[in-house]
Amino acid sequence: MIGPLGWGIFLGFFVIFIFLGFYGARWRRGDLNQLHEWALAGRRLGTFLAWFLVGADLYTAYTFVAVPSGVFASGALYFYAVPYVATVFALAAVTMPALWRWSRLRNYVTAADFVQERFNSKLLAGFVAATGIVAEFPYIALQIVGMQAVLTVMLLGVVKNVKLVSDIALTISFIILAAFVYTSGLRGATLTAVFKDALIFLGVIAILVAVPFAIHGGFSAAFNAATLKALPTGVSTLKDPYFITYTTLWIGSSLALYLYPHSVNGALSAESDKKLAMSTALLPIYGIALALLAMYGILIYGSPEAMKILSLFPASARGSLVIPTLAVTTLPEWLAALALLGVFVGGLVPAAIMAMAQANLLIRNVVKPIYPRITPQGETRAAKWSSVIFKFLALGFVFIVPATYAIWLQLLGGIIITQTLPAVFLGLVTNKFDKYSLMTGWAVGLGLGIYLFITPHKPSAMSPLYPIAGHLVFIAIIALAVNLLIVLVGTGIAMAVKRGMS
Amino acid sequence: MTTEASKNIHTWRKVVAGILFIIPWIYYTLLPLYNTVQPELGGVPYFYWSQTLWLLISSILFVIGVILLYPSKR
């Protein structure tokens, strides 16, 4: 377990992380009273930095906690995250440079800015912005759950009341985070992102190298041990009934990711459309770390020592502790401390960017249309303060909602955000869609998605999956299909009516 | 400006890039093809390592696609 040496290294490197966060304000200096300077780092990131920033932004506690946790508890189904990251960047390499070109030309900061002009509707833009703000909350909450997992493993055996101490530590970390995001904006997030990635890669590779020494029999022993546990969706391969579930989960997640405001924020900070496209094309390589982390959800079954630690916790809490536990049981203490810090700041950095993206949407697409006389400086100040408030709202959310639900809620976030696809992605291709049909499609898709999510059915009361003809289907796909149908039919009717009148 | 620049890109470049971007989407939907245990690699079933390998293949395809779409621009 982690002793004084490990704690010293963890805290020492955390101080470096904080320094980088504040130093960001001085790095590539710009007027931080301008929203695009604060929120988009002045749109000056090259291929390399954009790769790190977007990578750090998209590979989050979802990667380190939710996916390994899912593989650990359910088996092969959760490997859907791999096709998801392989395909999402093809979509992004086509859509994001196009959005980037529009944004540079017209000074857009959010996707809702684009929707507003494209379809000439502040109301539709407001809906897109509100969807982004809401969908982001559970995603930030998930980051905090990841950070809690690290603290839980580190505090085990050190203090009596682990929950209380970890809550205090989290609150302090969030105060520091809010302070440096306020002063440095996306610049701070970018510098800390490179630092974070270095730690993550170090941890992932170190565990891979340590496997033959630390786990007797390596991966084959682990797969055999996991097979004995009969994970519900299969261990070595995916069980037949889950084929459609697997496919709809990765397609739905893939369609959703670049609709999230934090992804758009990262993409718009690139220096040119070509550099953005190139860094996006290289991101699946970053996903290899995700694939390994997912497999570590199986690997842990091969380590009796790690399983013993997990058995100290209730079954529902074990999944999120997989990676931190594997780090402390397979790695030397100093290396384990660095890996744990990687997972910890791996939650902080994305949480920072997500709260910034929420703040941009609130100020640009909700507040500004209501108070059009706001000055650019006032706009930036309001965005800075809103990003602080959003962070603490998410923190409060985690203290109230149990961790198990936070991961379900992240998939609910996916169901919600996917309903903005017709306005944003299809808007890049055409402006022919009727804005009222887009609004109706959005509202019905959203309502249907939430209704199916909360409707009780097997196998669990609240689930992102809904059974259709005996197959569990990701609700985001069902709701999006209905949404698209309404947009197409509605636009057809609107065109026919216009033609009839003229 | 940029919208005109994108018009100058030959259609064949767009078509080939489009195909390259779509290949991983098609591959991953053919789940029964890779949902097998054998051949194993270092104790890891084919289901896991082949999908991981396709991350690398996807990246190579996408990079070629991007080079096709942005031939001369900085």
UniProtKB/TrEMBL annotation, chain B:
What residues form the membrane-spanning segments?
12-34, 46-70
Asked whether the UniProt record includes Transmembrane helix among its keywords, one would answer: yes
List keywords of the entry alphabetically. Answer: Membrane, Transmembrane, Transmembrane helix
This chain belongs to which protein, by name?
Answer: DUF3311 domain-containing protein
Source species taxonomy: Archaea, Thermoproteota, Thermoprotei, Thermoproteales, Thermoproteaceae
